[in-house]
Protein backbone atom coordinates (compact mmCIF):
# COMPACT_ATOMS: atom_id res chain seq x y z
CA UNK A 1 0.00 0.00 0.00
CA UNK A 2 1.50 3.29 -1.03
CA UNK A 3 0.24 6.83 -1.40
CA UNK A 4 -3.40 6.90 -0.37
CA UNK A 5 -5.13 4.40 1.87
CA UNK A 6 -6.70 1.33 0.47
CA UNK A 7 -10.47 1.02 0.92
CA UNK A 8 -11.78 -2.05 2.71
CA UNK A 9 -12.91 -3.52 -0.60
CA UNK A 10 -9.37 -3.14 -2.04
CA UNK A 11 -7.65 -4.95 0.85
CA UNK A 12 -6.60 -8.55 0.64
CA UNK A 13 -7.38 -11.01 3.39
CA UNK A 14 -3.71 -10.84 4.40
CA UNK A 15 -3.93 -7.03 4.70
CA UNK A 16 -6.94 -7.30 6.98
CA UNK A 17 -5.38 -10.00 9.12
CA UNK A 18 -2.17 -7.99 9.49
CA UNK A 19 -4.10 -4.93 10.66
CA UNK A 20 -6.16 -7.10 13.00
CA UNK A 21 -3.00 -8.54 14.54
CA UNK A 22 -1.62 -5.03 15.16
CA UNK A 23 -4.86 -3.89 16.78
CA UNK A 24 -5.00 -6.94 19.01
CA UNK A 25 -1.36 -6.44 20.02
CA UNK A 26 -2.14 -2.85 21.04
CA UNK A 27 -5.09 -3.95 23.17
CA UNK A 28 -3.23 -6.80 24.83
CA UNK A 29 -0.12 -4.76 25.57
CA UNK A 30 0.29 -4.03 29.31
CA UNK A 31 -1.95 -3.14 30.95
CA UNK A 32 -3.95 -5.82 29.13
CA UNK A 33 -7.56 -4.71 28.54
CA UNK A 34 -10.68 -6.64 27.65
CA UNK A 35 -12.55 -5.78 24.47
CA UNK A 36 -15.25 -4.13 26.60
CA UNK A 37 -12.64 -1.91 28.31
CA UNK A 38 -11.14 -1.09 24.91
CA UNK A 39 -14.59 -0.15 23.63
CA UNK A 40 -14.99 2.22 26.59
CA UNK A 41 -11.62 3.80 25.75
CA UNK A 42 -12.63 4.29 22.13
CA UNK A 43 -15.92 5.89 23.14
CA UNK A 44 -14.10 8.15 25.57
CA UNK A 45 -11.69 9.19 22.80
CA UNK A 46 -14.69 10.22 20.68
CA UNK A 47 -15.55 12.96 23.16
CA UNK A 48 -18.94 14.56 22.41
CA UNK A 49 -19.41 12.23 19.43
CA UNK A 50 -19.49 9.18 21.74
CA UNK A 51 -23.28 9.46 21.88
CA UNK A 52 -23.33 8.64 18.16
CA UNK A 53 -21.27 5.47 18.52
CA UNK A 54 -22.68 1.98 19.15
CA UNK A 55 -23.08 0.73 22.68
CA UNK A 56 -20.08 -0.75 24.52
CA UNK A 57 -21.40 -4.26 23.91
CA UNK A 58 -21.87 -3.70 20.17
CA UNK A 59 -18.55 -1.92 19.82
CA UNK A 60 -16.76 -4.76 21.65
CA UNK A 61 -18.20 -7.18 19.08
CA UNK A 62 -16.93 -4.94 16.26
CA UNK A 63 -13.46 -4.93 17.87
CA UNK A 64 -13.56 -8.73 17.87
CA UNK A 65 -14.29 -8.75 14.10
CA UNK A 66 -11.52 -6.24 13.43
CA UNK A 67 -8.95 -8.22 15.41
CA UNK A 68 -9.89 -11.42 13.56
CA UNK A 69 -9.33 -9.66 10.26
CA UNK A 70 -12.91 -10.22 9.17
CA UNK A 71 -13.34 -6.46 8.77
CA UNK A 72 -11.15 -3.39 9.28
CA UNK A 73 -12.03 -0.19 11.12
CA UNK A 74 -13.40 2.50 8.83
CA UNK A 75 -12.61 6.22 8.90
CA UNK A 76 -14.99 6.69 11.83
CA UNK A 77 -12.95 4.51 14.16
CA UNK A 78 -9.35 4.88 12.95
CA UNK A 79 -8.82 8.31 14.52
CA UNK A 80 -10.13 6.89 17.81
CA UNK A 81 -7.47 4.16 17.69
CA UNK A 82 -4.87 6.85 17.05
CA UNK A 83 -5.99 8.81 20.11
CA UNK A 84 -6.10 5.75 22.36
CA UNK A 85 -2.76 4.21 21.29
CA UNK A 86 -0.77 7.36 20.54
CA UNK A 87 0.38 5.83 17.26
CA UNK A 88 -0.18 7.17 13.78
CA UNK A 89 -2.65 5.73 11.30
CA UNK A 90 0.28 4.68 9.16
CA UNK A 91 1.66 2.56 11.99
CA UNK A 92 -1.70 0.98 12.74
CA UNK A 93 -3.25 0.61 9.31
CA UNK A 94 -0.35 0.50 6.86
CA UNK A 95 2.48 2.64 5.42
CA UNK A 96 1.33 6.12 4.47
CA UNK A 97 -2.14 5.38 5.79
CA UNK A 98 -3.83 8.57 7.01
CA UNK A 99 -7.54 9.03 6.80
CA UNK A 100 -8.55 12.54 5.66
CA UNK A 101 -11.65 12.18 7.84
CA UNK A 102 -10.85 12.71 11.53
CA UNK A 103 -14.24 11.81 12.91
CA UNK A 104 -17.69 10.64 11.93
CA UNK A 105 -19.68 12.55 9.32
CA UNK A 106 -20.75 14.90 12.10
CA UNK A 107 -19.64 18.30 13.32
CA UNK A 108 -16.13 16.88 13.73
CA UNK A 109 -16.01 15.62 10.15
CA UNK A 110 -17.34 18.88 8.79
CA UNK A 111 -14.79 20.85 10.76
CA UNK A 112 -11.95 18.83 9.24
CA UNK A 113 -13.52 18.92 5.80
CA UNK A 114 -13.59 22.69 6.05
CA UNK A 115 -9.83 22.69 6.43
CA UNK A 116 -9.54 20.99 3.00
CA UNK A 117 -11.98 23.43 1.45
CA UNK A 118 -10.48 26.50 3.07
CA UNK A 119 -11.26 27.63 6.62
CA UNK A 120 -11.88 31.19 5.59
CA UNK A 121 -14.57 30.29 3.07
CA UNK A 122 -16.51 28.18 5.55
CA UNK A 123 -16.10 30.66 8.41
CA UNK A 124 -17.22 33.53 6.22
CA UNK A 125 -20.32 31.60 5.20
CA UNK A 126 -21.24 30.79 8.80
CA UNK A 127 -20.94 34.43 9.79
CA UNK A 128 -23.81 35.30 7.47
CA UNK A 129 -27.06 36.36 9.07
CA UNK A 130 -29.48 33.97 7.37
CA UNK A 131 -30.15 30.22 7.35
CA UNK A 132 -29.43 30.03 3.63
CA UNK A 133 -25.79 30.97 4.18
CA UNK A 134 -25.46 28.41 6.92
CA UNK A 135 -26.90 25.71 4.65
CA UNK A 136 -24.50 26.72 1.86
CA UNK A 137 -21.60 26.51 4.29
CA UNK A 138 -22.57 22.99 5.30
CA UNK A 139 -22.93 21.97 1.67
CA UNK A 140 -19.42 23.26 1.03
CA UNK A 141 -18.10 21.19 3.92
CA UNK A 142 -19.72 17.99 2.65
CA UNK A 143 -18.61 18.61 -0.91
CA UNK A 144 -15.03 18.97 0.28
CA UNK A 145 -14.95 15.36 1.51
CA UNK A 146 -13.12 13.28 -1.01
CA UNK A 147 -15.41 10.95 -3.02
CA UNK A 148 -13.30 7.90 -2.16
CA UNK A 149 -13.79 8.66 1.53
CA UNK A 150 -17.56 8.81 1.08
CA UNK A 151 -17.45 5.49 -0.76
CA UNK A 152 -15.57 3.97 2.18
CA UNK A 153 -18.08 5.35 4.66
CA UNK A 154 -21.20 4.23 2.84
CA UNK A 155 -20.80 0.45 3.34
CA UNK A 156 -20.82 1.01 7.10
CA UNK A 157 -23.44 3.77 7.12
CA UNK A 158 -26.50 1.54 6.80
CA UNK A 159 -25.30 -0.74 9.60
CA UNK A 160 -24.59 2.28 11.77
CA UNK A 161 -28.02 3.78 11.11
CA UNK A 162 -29.65 0.48 12.06
CA UNK A 163 -27.56 0.34 15.25
CA UNK A 164 -28.49 3.90 16.19
CA UNK A 165 -32.17 3.12 15.61
CA UNK A 166 -31.89 -0.01 17.75
CA UNK A 167 -30.21 1.95 20.55
CA UNK A 168 -32.96 4.56 20.53
CA UNK A 169 -35.37 1.89 21.73
CA UNK A 170 -33.02 -0.19 23.88
CA UNK A 171 -33.99 -0.23 27.53
CA UNK A 172 -33.35 -2.35 30.59
CA UNK A 173 -36.52 -1.08 32.25
CA UNK A 174 -39.39 -3.50 32.53
CA UNK A 175 -42.99 -2.30 32.20
CA UNK A 176 -43.54 -2.21 35.97
CA UNK A 177 -40.46 -0.19 36.99
CA UNK A 178 -42.10 3.22 36.99
CA UNK A 179 -45.23 1.98 38.71
CA UNK A 180 -43.03 0.54 41.44
CA UNK A 181 -41.04 3.76 41.82
CA UNK A 182 -44.25 5.78 41.98
CA UNK A 183 -45.53 3.53 44.76
CA UNK A 184 -42.26 3.83 46.72
CA UNK A 185 -42.06 7.62 46.46
CA UNK A 186 -45.74 7.94 47.38
CA UNK A 187 -45.26 5.72 50.43
CA UNK A 188 -42.21 7.69 51.56
CA UNK A 189 -44.09 10.95 51.23
CA UNK A 190 -47.07 9.62 53.17
CA UNK A 191 -45.01 8.08 55.96
CA UNK A 192 -42.56 10.96 56.35
CA UNK A 193 -44.40 12.83 59.11
CA UNK A 194 -45.08 9.74 61.22
CA UNK A 195 -42.40 7.07 60.86
CA UNK A 196 -38.89 7.04 62.31
CA UNK A 197 -36.49 8.88 59.98
CA UNK A 198 -33.78 6.20 60.37
CA UNK A 199 -35.99 3.52 58.78
CA UNK A 200 -37.21 5.79 56.00
CA UNK A 201 -33.69 7.05 55.24
CA UNK A 202 -32.44 3.51 54.63
CA UNK A 203 -35.38 2.77 52.35
CA UNK A 204 -35.04 5.99 50.36
CA UNK A 205 -31.28 5.62 50.00
CA UNK A 206 -31.58 2.07 48.70
CA UNK A 207 -34.03 3.12 46.01
CA UNK A 208 -32.01 6.22 45.15
CA UNK A 209 -29.00 4.02 44.41
CA UNK A 210 -31.17 1.73 42.30
CA UNK A 211 -32.45 4.65 40.26
CA UNK A 212 -28.85 5.80 39.71
CA UNK A 213 -28.05 2.35 38.31
CA UNK A 214 -31.05 2.54 35.99
CA UNK A 215 -29.94 5.98 34.80
CA UNK A 216 -26.51 4.56 33.94
CA UNK A 217 -28.05 1.62 32.10
CA UNK A 218 -29.79 1.49 28.72
CA UNK A 219 -33.07 3.38 28.50
CA UNK A 220 -34.97 5.63 26.11
CA UNK A 221 -34.70 9.40 26.25
CA UNK A 222 -38.20 9.74 27.73
CA UNK A 223 -37.45 7.09 30.32
CA UNK A 224 -34.26 8.92 31.19
CA UNK A 225 -36.21 12.07 31.99
CA UNK A 226 -38.65 10.12 34.15
CA UNK A 227 -35.78 8.47 36.01
CA UNK A 228 -34.29 11.91 36.72
CA UNK A 229 -37.63 12.99 38.18
CA UNK A 230 -37.78 9.96 40.51
CA UNK A 231 -34.13 10.50 41.44
CA UNK A 232 -35.02 14.07 42.43
CA UNK A 233 -38.03 13.03 44.51
CA UNK A 234 -35.94 10.44 46.37
CA UNK A 235 -33.12 12.92 46.95
CA UNK A 236 -35.61 15.48 48.24
CA UNK A 237 -36.89 12.90 50.74
CA UNK A 238 -33.31 12.07 51.74
CA UNK A 239 -32.60 15.77 52.30
CA UNK A 240 -35.47 16.10 54.79
CA UNK A 241 -34.61 12.81 56.49
CA UNK A 242 -30.92 13.73 56.87
CA UNK A 243 -32.10 17.07 58.30
CA UNK A 244 -34.30 15.20 60.78
CA UNK A 245 -31.33 13.02 61.74
CA UNK A 246 -29.18 16.06 62.48
CA UNK A 247 -26.71 16.06 59.56
CA UNK A 248 -27.03 19.43 57.80
CA UNK A 249 -24.14 18.74 55.41
CA UNK A 250 -25.70 15.54 54.07
CA UNK A 251 -29.12 17.18 54.04
CA UNK A 252 -27.90 20.09 51.94
CA UNK A 253 -26.05 17.75 49.56
CA UNK A 254 -29.20 15.71 48.94
CA UNK A 255 -31.28 18.87 48.45
CA UNK A 256 -28.78 20.15 45.86
CA UNK A 257 -28.91 16.78 44.12
CA UNK A 258 -32.71 16.94 44.05
CA UNK A 259 -32.64 20.39 42.49
CA UNK A 260 -30.08 19.45 39.85
CA UNK A 261 -31.92 16.31 38.72
CA UNK A 262 -35.26 18.13 38.69
CA UNK A 263 -33.74 20.98 36.71
CA UNK A 264 -32.22 18.58 34.18
CA UNK A 265 -35.66 17.01 33.78
CA UNK A 266 -37.30 20.43 33.32
CA UNK A 267 -39.53 19.92 36.39
CA UNK A 268 -39.84 23.42 37.88
CA UNK A 269 -42.23 22.49 40.68
CA UNK A 270 -39.86 19.78 41.90
CA UNK A 271 -37.00 22.30 41.77
CA UNK A 272 -39.07 24.50 44.08
CA UNK A 273 -39.69 21.63 46.52
CA UNK A 274 -35.92 21.09 46.64
CA UNK A 275 -35.29 24.76 47.47
CA UNK A 276 -37.92 24.56 50.22
CA UNK A 277 -35.84 21.80 51.82
CA UNK A 278 -32.65 23.84 51.29
CA UNK A 279 -34.21 26.84 53.07
CA UNK A 280 -35.30 24.87 56.14
CA UNK A 281 -31.98 23.07 56.38
CA UNK A 282 -30.09 26.38 56.26
CA UNK A 283 -32.42 28.04 58.81
CA UNK A 284 -31.69 25.35 61.40
CA UNK A 285 -27.98 25.39 60.55
CA UNK A 286 -27.98 29.12 61.45
CA UNK A 287 -27.25 30.18 57.86
CA UNK A 288 -30.14 32.57 57.21
CA UNK A 289 -28.54 34.25 54.19
CA UNK A 290 -28.27 30.84 52.49
CA UNK A 291 -31.87 30.10 53.45
CA UNK A 292 -33.02 33.39 51.95
CA UNK A 293 -31.19 32.72 48.69
CA UNK A 294 -32.70 29.22 48.46
CA UNK A 295 -36.22 30.54 49.08
CA UNK A 296 -35.80 33.28 46.48
CA UNK A 297 -34.52 30.74 43.98
CA UNK A 298 -37.55 28.57 44.63
CA UNK A 299 -39.98 31.47 44.29
CA UNK A 300 -38.82 31.84 40.67
CA UNK A 301 -39.60 28.17 40.00
CA UNK A 302 -42.84 27.59 41.93
CA UNK A 303 -46.21 27.95 40.16
CA UNK A 304 -47.85 31.17 41.41
CA UNK A 305 -51.19 29.59 42.32
CA UNK A 306 -49.63 26.69 44.17
CA UNK A 307 -49.35 26.42 47.99
CA UNK A 308 -45.61 25.95 47.50
CA UNK A 309 -45.35 29.59 46.36
CA UNK A 310 -46.82 30.60 49.74
CA UNK A 311 -44.53 28.29 51.68
CA UNK A 312 -41.41 29.65 49.98
CA UNK A 313 -42.36 33.23 50.77
CA UNK A 314 -42.91 32.26 54.38
CA UNK A 315 -39.49 30.58 54.31
CA UNK A 316 -38.00 33.84 53.03
CA UNK A 317 -39.77 35.71 55.85
CA UNK A 318 -38.19 33.39 58.44
CA UNK A 319 -34.77 33.98 56.91
CA UNK A 320 -35.27 37.76 56.98
CA UNK A 321 -36.30 37.48 60.64
CA UNK A 322 -33.15 35.54 61.52
CA UNK A 323 -31.20 38.31 59.81
CA UNK A 324 -33.16 40.88 61.88
CA UNK A 325 -34.57 42.39 58.69
CA UNK A 326 -38.07 43.33 59.79
CA UNK A 327 -39.09 45.08 56.59
CA UNK A 328 -38.14 42.13 54.39
CA UNK A 329 -39.79 39.68 56.77
CA UNK A 330 -43.11 41.48 56.92
CA UNK A 331 -43.10 42.12 53.17
CA UNK A 332 -42.68 38.41 52.49
CA UNK A 333 -45.40 37.53 54.99
CA UNK A 334 -47.68 40.03 53.30
CA UNK A 335 -46.99 38.52 49.87
CA UNK A 336 -47.64 35.03 51.25
CA UNK A 337 -50.94 36.14 52.75
CA UNK A 338 -52.06 37.73 49.46
CA UNK A 339 -51.32 34.51 47.59
CA UNK A 340 -53.01 32.44 50.30
CA UNK A 341 -56.21 34.47 49.92
CA UNK A 342 -56.18 33.80 46.16
CA UNK A 343 -55.52 30.06 46.30
CA UNK A 344 -57.97 27.93 44.31
CA UNK A 345 -60.57 26.13 46.38
CA UNK A 346 -59.03 22.76 45.54
CA UNK A 347 -55.30 22.60 46.23
CA UNK A 348 -53.17 20.18 44.19
CA UNK A 349 -51.93 16.97 45.74
CA UNK A 350 -48.33 16.12 46.39
CA UNK A 351 -48.74 12.40 45.71
CA UNK A 352 -51.54 11.73 48.23
CA UNK A 353 -50.92 14.71 50.53
CA UNK A 354 -53.13 17.80 50.26
CA UNK A 355 -50.72 20.70 49.74
CA UNK A 356 -53.31 23.11 51.10
CA UNK A 357 -52.34 21.93 54.58
CA UNK A 358 -48.73 22.87 53.88
CA UNK A 359 -49.86 26.38 52.98
CA UNK A 360 -51.82 26.65 56.25
CA UNK A 361 -48.74 25.54 58.17
CA UNK A 362 -46.65 28.15 56.39
CA UNK A 363 -49.12 30.88 57.36
CA UNK A 364 -49.15 29.92 61.04
CA UNK A 365 -46.01 28.12 62.20
CA UNK A 366 -43.51 30.08 60.09
CA UNK A 367 -44.77 33.53 61.16
CA UNK A 368 -44.70 32.35 64.80
CA UNK A 369 -40.99 31.52 64.53
CA UNK A 370 -40.32 34.71 62.56
CA UNK A 371 -41.85 37.01 65.19
CA UNK A 372 -39.96 35.25 67.99
CA UNK A 373 -36.71 35.84 66.10
CA UNK A 374 -37.59 39.48 65.44
CA UNK A 375 -38.16 39.69 69.20
CA UNK A 376 -39.40 43.24 69.80
CA UNK A 377 -41.92 43.26 72.66
CA UNK A 378 -42.77 46.92 72.08
CA UNK A 379 -43.96 46.06 68.57
CA UNK A 380 -46.05 43.17 69.88
CA UNK A 381 -43.87 40.48 68.31
CA UNK A 382 -44.38 37.93 71.09
CA UNK A 383 -48.15 38.40 71.16
CA UNK A 384 -48.18 37.84 67.38
CA UNK A 385 -45.96 34.78 67.79
CA UNK A 386 -48.32 33.34 70.42
CA UNK A 387 -51.34 33.89 68.17
CA UNK A 388 -49.70 32.19 65.17
CA UNK A 389 -48.25 29.29 67.20
CA UNK A 390 -51.62 28.57 68.77
CA UNK A 391 -53.22 28.63 65.32
CA UNK A 392 -50.58 26.16 64.05
CA UNK A 393 -51.26 23.84 67.00
CA UNK A 394 -55.03 24.06 66.54
CA UNK A 395 -54.70 23.33 62.82
CA UNK A 396 -52.70 20.17 63.53
CA UNK A 397 -55.18 18.99 66.15
CA UNK A 398 -58.04 19.48 63.72
CA UNK A 399 -56.54 17.07 61.19
CA UNK A 400 -57.43 13.36 61.08
CA UNK A 401 -54.97 11.34 63.14
CA UNK A 402 -53.31 9.85 60.05
CA UNK A 403 -52.52 13.32 58.65
CA UNK A 404 -51.15 14.92 61.81
CA UNK A 405 -47.43 15.65 62.05
CA UNK A 406 -46.05 15.08 65.57
CA UNK A 407 -42.86 17.03 64.88
CA UNK A 408 -44.76 20.06 63.54
CA UNK A 409 -47.01 19.98 66.60
CA UNK A 410 -43.92 19.86 68.81
CA UNK A 411 -42.35 22.89 67.11
CA UNK A 412 -45.62 24.81 67.45
CA UNK A 413 -45.56 24.04 71.19
CA UNK A 414 -41.97 25.28 71.47
CA UNK A 415 -42.87 28.52 69.65
CA UNK A 416 -45.84 28.92 71.98
CA UNK A 417 -43.54 28.29 74.95
CA UNK A 418 -40.96 30.85 73.79
CA UNK A 419 -43.71 33.44 73.41
CA UNK A 420 -45.03 32.54 76.89
CA UNK A 421 -41.61 33.17 78.46
CA UNK A 422 -41.50 36.66 77.00
CA UNK A 423 -45.10 37.29 78.07
CA UNK A 424 -44.27 36.42 81.72
CA UNK A 425 -45.53 32.81 81.88
CA UNK A 426 -42.42 30.65 82.57
CA UNK A 427 -44.33 27.76 84.19
CA UNK A 428 -46.60 27.52 81.15
CA UNK A 429 -43.55 27.66 78.90
CA UNK A 430 -41.83 24.80 80.77
CA UNK A 431 -44.98 22.67 80.55
CA UNK A 432 -45.26 23.25 76.80
CA UNK A 433 -41.58 22.37 76.44
CA UNK A 434 -42.17 19.06 78.24
CA UNK A 435 -45.07 18.28 75.89
CA UNK A 436 -42.89 19.08 72.87
CA UNK A 437 -40.12 16.73 74.02
CA UNK A 438 -42.67 13.95 74.56
CA UNK A 439 -43.40 13.85 70.81
CA UNK A 440 -43.17 10.37 69.26
CA UNK A 441 -41.08 11.90 66.47
CA UNK A 442 -38.29 13.75 68.25
CA UNK A 443 -36.30 14.92 65.23
CA UNK A 444 -33.36 17.31 65.21
CA UNK A 445 -35.42 20.41 64.41
CA UNK A 446 -37.52 19.82 67.56
CA UNK A 447 -34.39 19.39 69.66
CA UNK A 448 -32.93 22.55 68.14
CA UNK A 449 -35.97 24.70 68.99
CA UNK A 450 -36.24 23.08 72.42
CA UNK A 451 -32.60 24.08 72.92
CA UNK A 452 -33.60 27.72 72.36
CA UNK A 453 -36.24 27.34 75.07
CA UNK A 454 -33.70 25.66 77.38
CA UNK A 455 -31.38 28.65 77.07
CA UNK A 456 -34.05 31.30 77.67
CA UNK A 457 -35.57 29.55 80.68
CA UNK A 458 -32.16 28.74 82.14
CA UNK A 459 -31.05 32.37 82.04
CA UNK A 460 -34.19 33.85 83.56
CA UNK A 461 -36.02 31.19 85.56
CA UNK A 462 -33.52 28.45 86.46
CA UNK A 463 -34.82 28.08 90.04
CA UNK A 464 -38.41 27.24 89.13
CA UNK A 465 -39.19 23.51 89.68
CA UNK A 466 -41.05 23.26 86.37
CA UNK A 467 -38.08 24.76 84.57
CA UNK A 468 -35.65 22.35 86.26
CA UNK A 469 -37.83 19.43 85.19
CA UNK A 470 -37.88 20.65 81.61
CA UNK A 471 -34.12 21.17 81.54
CA UNK A 472 -33.44 17.69 82.88
CA UNK A 473 -35.78 16.17 80.29
CA UNK A 474 -34.08 18.18 77.54
CA UNK A 475 -30.62 16.99 78.59
CA UNK A 476 -31.79 13.37 78.48
CA UNK A 477 -33.27 13.95 75.02
CA UNK A 478 -29.97 15.33 73.73
CA UNK A 479 -27.96 12.48 75.25
CA UNK A 480 -30.28 9.87 73.75
CA UNK A 481 -29.82 11.31 70.26
From TrEMBL:
Q: Where is the composition biased (Polar residues)?
A: 1-15
What name is this protein filed under?
XRE family transcriptional regulator
Q: Which domain of life is it from?
A: Bacteria
Locate the compositionally biased regions of type Basic and acidic residues. Answer: 23-34
Stretch list, region Disordered: 1-34
